[in-house]
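Retro notes, structure queue

What went well: the backlog is down to a handful. What didn't: a couple of records were mislabeled last round, so from now on we paste the full input next to the output in the thread. Example, using Drug resistance transporter, EmrB/QacA subfamily from Saccharomonospora glauca K62:
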Amino acid sequence: MEPSTIALPSRTRWLALVVLCAGALMAIVDETIVAVSLPVIQSDLGFTQAGASWITGAYLVAFAGLLLLAGRLGDLVGRRRVFLVGLAGFTVSSALCGLAPNPVVLVAARFVQGIGGAAMTAVLLGMIVTLFTEPGERARAIGAFSFVQASGGTLGALIGGLVTEALSWHWIFYLNVPLGVLAFLLALRVLPGDEAPHTRQRLDVPGAVLATGGLATLIYAITGLERTGWEEACAFGVVAAALLGGLVLRQRKTDAPLLPLRLLRSRRLVGANVVLLLLVAAMFGFMFLTMLTVQRVFSFDTRQAGLAMAPVSVAIAVLSLIVTPRLNTRFGERLVLPVGLTVIAVGFALLATLPPDASYVPHLLPALMLLGTGFGLAMPSLMSLGMAEATPRDSGVASGLFNTTQQVGGALGLSTLLVVATAHADARLAEGTPEPLALLDGYRLSFGIGVGLVLTACAMTLVLLSRRGPGTERPARS
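Corresponding output:
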């Protein structure tokens, strides 16, 4: 069933897309913008080493833990309402983060920021697929959203370094305030009003508790892997598995499920989420590992490291906004997606074989351009496939599921690849290997794992997304 069309003038719909993408950009940028400024914040406010991890951890736990619930709330009470509440909460809490006088206030404000970010992000894809139903327009709209999702992390690292150097760490949060206010005022004017719910369905409160607790615990376990070690992370992982297992049982029994299990019978939806998990695990880890490589091995400063990653964002922008929508309309997402994944795998292979005397232009730049190009091809195609069968009553929770998978994949990839790289580098150091070469060996090993993740995603694409099931035919082009 195709989502119902929202009859808005073309200009208004594209302005609405700008507002939605602005909200997504603020939420995604905030995942990485703090990482660059973390040492400065830690020193200024007197964080302990363990406490400093909660500056990012509080945001990620709230953000990932509430995506599924926020998506379902959008289906029940209105996606516009949920987006506006999230945007307002995110903007106010950003101001509180900038004003924070001590660690407790900053961590609490970051947690509220995560709640606002989850509310904004969870309903975005659901709103886009109902705003844009014509295949060509939808491809362009999802391409724009994919660009924001894909480039937000890199942009956050660049902005964080530049703003902290030029002004202070407070301004990485203050910048959200005028952007948030402007986006909120525009949203009131251009976002369509919420339609009446299809049924007077109630919220599955026990399911919401299980989902939020399970996802938050899972993210805590993953993000704490480097800090706490495998034993504690596995213990929390078992708790998360128990909570999420309870969620599945609850959804089978309740008449008003938070996550309708009929969605999981869609081969395309499940396949797209599996591929997304693997792809984002590789790419999110790549962004951080590459920043570490250029800083710790090749001695780039913060500004140089941010600028070194800029070609990735440029390549993603050109592909996501211009090239991929046309390719998807002409050839179909299932043909474009494996091509993009293959290009990414080649880029990872180049990084996995970086020589010790590598320099930026002949060695790093080709790999970065391939990764940006491949991601710009793959991400819009994957999002289109994942949301193709979302019905009006379930598009919010389908969007929340897709974003939840992205967060879990990103956290899993970053933590695992970083732990593997660190452990291998430590082993090489113990053997007497010079530090730069030991670090490079660790990063190369993790980049090699990235090749395996992306090739597995490509195989899953061919297995799970290769055939059209009932109701999955592409709409005829007008």
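Agreed that this is the format going forward. Reviewer comment attached to the example: The mean pLDDT is 82.
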